[in-house]
Amino acid sequence: MRHPPTLLLHPSDRRYGSLVRIDVLSIFPSYFDGLTLSLLGKAQHTGLIDLRVRDLREWTTDRHRTVDDTPYGGGAGMVMKPEPWGLALDEISADSRPTIIFPSPAGEVFTQATARDLSTREHLVFGCGRYEGIDERVFDYASTLGEVRLISLGDYVLNGGEVATMAMIEAIGRLIPGVVGNPESLVEESHEDGLLEYPSYTKPSVWRDHAVPDVLLSGNHAVIAAWRHEQQIERTRRRRPDLLPPENESV
Ligand SMILES: C[S@@+](CC[C@H](N)C(=O)[O-])C[C@H]1O[C@@H](n2cnc3c(N)ncnc32)[C@H](O)[C@@H]1O
Question: What does this chain do (predicted)?
Answer without folding.
Answer: Specifically methylates guanosine-37 in various tRNAs.
